[in-house]
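User: Structure please.
Assistant: Input sequence and predicted structure:
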Amino acid sequence: MYEPEEAARRNPYFKRNHVGKVMCTLCNIYCNDEANFMRHLSGKVHATQVERLEMKEIRNKRLEEEESANIEAMERLEMKEIRNKRLEEEESANIEAMERATREKAAR
């Protein structure tokens, strides 16, 4: 048998205050009892708040994914810069060695 009191208490947004009133923690709305709380849950105000919460969660997830992708891109860029710097250093060392060898050969 359906009992609104039990269904209301299982809802994640259900909270009872010290006076005994029931509160929807998502909408910050007080109801006199569990039956009114259940009516609130099926109403427009609650549906709008649930939709807002879902949109916020989707936006936050997308932002986290973008941030993760940006971090990965920055790490790849840093590695590329390190490789390029090493190549430049090696190339510079090779040029110096060739110039030294040329000078030594010319000095003979």
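DSSP finds three helices and three strands in the chain.
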